[in-house]
Amino acid sequence: MSQVEESIEVKAPVRAVYNQWTQFEDFPRFMDGVERIEQRTETLTHWKTKIAGVEREFDAEITEQIPDERVAWTSIGGEARQAGVVTFHRIDDTTTKVMLQLDHDPEGLAEAVGDKLGFVKRQATGDLKRFKEFIESRGGTETGAWRGNV
């Protein structure tokens, strides 16, 4: 199992940043390699990815969700094995620190080599930068929100 930890500061209030992160079907707009996410229930999402030519489909279950604080998940079934948590930290009224912790299990030789070369870490860093650009380009306004607790 490999681990990635990344963070970024976003020029938007914590509520807007958290709300945007709960809009899983928007992830393909800023996550490279994510082709589609379907929100099937309040706690179940279905992912279709294509990263470095490798296609995967899997379900992910939201295991914990606390508004303005954290979203945690784990994959279930399918080919991808991962778990993670994103936490949201208020810096001030207009700035939020987003922290990502991701545990993943590379599948096969190509993914293991890519992981050793830092591909997953670079992917996470890029995705967080694109998330920042996405919400900041909208003036800190989210596309939607889900404020429930899990």
TrEMBL record:
Domain Coenzyme Q-binding protein COQ10 START: from-to ranges: 10-131
Gene3D superfamilies associated with the record: 3.30.530.20
Domain of life: Bacteria
Entries under InterPro entries matching the protein: COQ10_START, ORF3, START-like_dom_sf
Name this polypeptide is given: SRPBCC family protein
